[in-house]
Design a protein that fits this description.
heterodimer, A: mainly beta, six-stranded mixed sheet, four-stranded antiparallel sheet, 52% strand, B: mainly beta, seven-stranded mixed sheet
């Protein structure tokens, strides 16, 4: 069964500091990996996804993530955090079988940004 | 494109009442998903459809929950009778699939359900 672990429930960083949110997955085949962001009272917005090819993927809002197969990880990074980045971040995994299917989400990491 | 549209945004109902949540997917998306989000259990997939046909309903909690997709532009999630433990945010998402096999979900803004 597929699963996603986000080990950090809550992270606080200062504005302008760098950010790395951790994501580890368990999946029996090549996964399709996603990062979503959720602001309070809103739905989930796609930040980026890895399907194939270059293991370093760029997303919106200056975020990037790197797929490391050997470590079963897909960590999200941003070099300089802005106060507007405060939100909850979800990592998700799905099948890379050529068929859209259900995603399994992690429990989320809540990011707080201090000024 | 207006995105995935869910209604209502908020619903407060009394225990035992029937609740119907609605979703309009993005035109051209042939997959539709219903998720439930709670503090205790996070995001859980309830059911998903492909071309209006239910593919996997193993996440539906019990017989009180039912979902339909009568056409490509509309889906409902019904709870009858509702219970306080059904209080959650219910999200609808739709997805395309491209020729390379990639796909991507777009989520609606959710319906916050409170059962008192």
């Amino acid at each position: 069964a597929q699963s996603v672990t986000q080990p950090d429930i809550h992270i606080t960083v200062s504005e302008g500091a760098s950010l790395e949110l951790r994501c580890n997955y368990s999946y029996g085949a090549t996964p399709y990996l996603f990062w979503y962001v959720q602001s309070p009272g809103q739905g989930l917005q796609l930040l980026l996804k890895y399907f194939s090819g270059d293991t370093l993927v760029q997303g919106i809002k200056g975020f990037e993530a790197e797929f490391k197969r050997s470590q079963s990880s897909f960590n999200l990074r941003k070099p300089s955090v802005h106060w507007s980045d405060a939100a909850e971040y979800f990592c998700a995994v799905g099948p890379n079988t050529g068929t859209a299917s259900k995603l399994t989400f992690g429990t989320g990491t809540r990011l707080q940004v201090t000024l | 494109d207006a995105g995935v549209i869910q209604s209502p945004r908020h619903e407060v109902t009394e225990m035992g009442q029937e609740v119907t949540l609605r979703c309009k997917p993005i035109s051209g998306h042939d997959y539709l998903f219903w998720y439930r989000q709670t503090m205790m259990r996070g995001l859980e997939l309830l059911i998903y459809f492909n071309n209006n046909v239910p593919i996997d309903d193993s996440g539906m909690p019990e017989d009180r929950f039912s979902a339909k997709m009568p056409n490509a532009s509309f889906s409902t999630l019904k709870i009858q009778p509702s219970e306080p433990r059904d209080s959650a945010v219910y999200f609808c998402a739709s997805s395309f699939q491209n020729r390379e096999g990639g796909y991507g979900y777009t989520f609606g803004s959710g319906t916050r359900l409170t059962v008192v």
